[in-house]
Amino acid sequence: MKNQKILILNFGGQYDQLIARRVRECNVYCEVKPYTMTLSKIRAFDPIGIIFTGGPDSVYKENSYHPAEGIFELGIPILGICYGCQLLAHHLGGMVTAAENENAREYGKTLTFYDNSCLLFDGLDEESISWMSHGDYMKKVPEGFKLVAHSGKCPNVAICDKERKFYGVQFHPEVNHTENGTAMIRNFLYKVCGAVGDWTMESYMHRCIEEIRSKVGKDKVLLALSGGVDSSVCAALFAEAVGTQLTCVFVDHGLLRKDEGDEVEKAFEKWNINLNRVNAKERFLKKLEGIIEPEQKRKIIGEEFIRVFEEEGKKIGRTDYLAQGTIYPDVIESGKENAETIKSHHNVGGLPDFVDFKEIIEPLRLLFKDEVRELGRQLGLPEYMVMRQPFPGPGLAIRVIGEITKEKLDILREADFIFRDEIAKARMESQLNQYFAVLTNMKSVGVMGDGRTYDWAIALRSVTTEDFMTADWSRIPYEILDKVSSRIVNEVSHVNRVLYDITSKPPATVEFE
Ligand code: XMP
């Protein structure tokens, strides 16, 4: 069975992934493609609806981005968001201009008034907040279109042509600040495009297992298991599909969090697969001796990881397929130009060119993180695995600032465990996207009992974020921070000070190194 599909054409907006996530949340499958997609490719994709994203440009400028000619004659419903809305106006006989001092330039939360007779706003509040971010506006609404929303400043906030099923909104329904935003997207999908809601993780799981079985046959599959959500869900999928034909190599590089290795092993007990936990702790420590530069740490760990994996692969003998837990945001990101590398992300799940396999299989490459978690649940992975916060490939190596030693790693592991434990006890896990301890490279003076101490300072870091590109520091209640701090200084030797990081990203990054 094939899913209904929505096509999201990206015009360079920053919210393309967010739009896609909202559509999927409404149980409709969608993919993000560049605005340059040709008409024949669009036809072949066969979408039930198209969404134009926002973009930084002005539609009337030379060299601005425009969709394939003929797209408006395909008979497919279109929803244009911000720049996308202006494209509708520009191409269908309206007029878009710079908002200058016409009062129509809007940024941020804006009280907006909707005409509920328009299907997009059907059944929703007549007035609510929308999130605006536009410097241009539709001076003239195109022929055949009706004005269906306005704000205090701007008369032309949304347009619709019911006949041709074209809808345009100046604001961003995909952003959380827009009240009823997801409901508007849902209306577009179900009431305009005729979606039936056939995208669920349960049906995807069954289909995926069948596909893996028919592709792999009796061949062998190798997978690098990091213990993170993506590689674990990928492993569970293959375990369910091909059982003992799967070998997972789990490299324990000694840079994992407390008890992590055992937890991973336990989660996979229920499947009959070959799980090979390689103890490479000494080896990694030796390679990292004396190294303080973060990028060098990453490079060494990445390379060493591949060496270990290679050696283990040789022991197993020839395997036909390599399974990898690449997910959709990675795929979309990698398609973007000019993405500057701030840190060379080494993904332990992701692997090397050296591998000589018939084929690499990436069953999660069209899924968002939330969907991967849901798939994991469907497969019966425990909640502590599917809800695991992101953990960087280089592990604790980039959280021990400066030189890495076993002693420092042990101190950090204990402090980090206490932090996570208290967050769990306070039931705050789902409110924080990533939280961990860092062993700063600083010793300071303290007093304990009657004596002076000169010991390490631990920093606590916690962020809330939608996509990790930007992040805000978490406002954890003082009482919880207080408990974490007093437990760390009391229970972990050689720590006499605990600091809380109150910097957002940018200018800081999530990790310290
Ligand atoms: P930064 O520090 O770049 O982190 O703001 C953003 C997210 O990426 C994770 N991160 C990494 N993940 N290998 C990884 O697999 C890395 O080298 C790496 N560096 C940062 C970080 O934990 C956060 O979730």
Mean pLDDT: 91
Residue stretches low in confidence (pLDDT < 50, at least 5 long) are 336-350
What overall form do the CA principal axes indicate? Answer: globular
Question: Structural class per helix/strand content?
Answer: alpha/beta
Small molecules bound in the structure, each named once:
xanthosine-5'-monophosphate
Number of helices: 14
Rg, please? 26 Å
Helical residue percent band? 25-40%
Q: Could you give a short account of the major beta sheet?
A: 9 strands, mixed
Distance between the termini: 47 Å
- Tell me the β content: 15-25%
The neighbouring-strand order within the major sheet is 2-1-3-4-11-10-9-6-7
Overall number of strands: 20
Keywords:
binds xanthosine-5'-monophosphate; 9-stranded mixed sheet; alpha/beta; 513 residues; 14 helices
Describe it.
The strands form 4 sheets. Strands 2-1-3-4-11-10-9-6-7 form a 9-stranded mixed beta sheet, sandwiched between helices. The two termini are 47 Å apart. Strand 13, helix 7 (260-267) and strand 14 (274-279) form a beta-alpha-beta unit. The protein has helices spanning 16-25, 39-45, 83-91, 181-192, 201-216, 229-242, 260-267, 281-288, 294-316, 328-334, 369-378, 383-386, 406-425, 478-491, and strands at 5-10, 29-34, 49-52, 78-81, 95-98, 106-114, 127-134, 136-140, 146-151, 158-161, 166-169, 221-224, 246-252, 274-279, 321-323, 359-361, 434-448, 451-464, 472-473, 495-500. The longest helix has 23 residues, at 294-316. The protein is built from 14 helices and 20 strands. It is an alpha/beta fold. The chain binds xanthosine-5'-monophosphate.
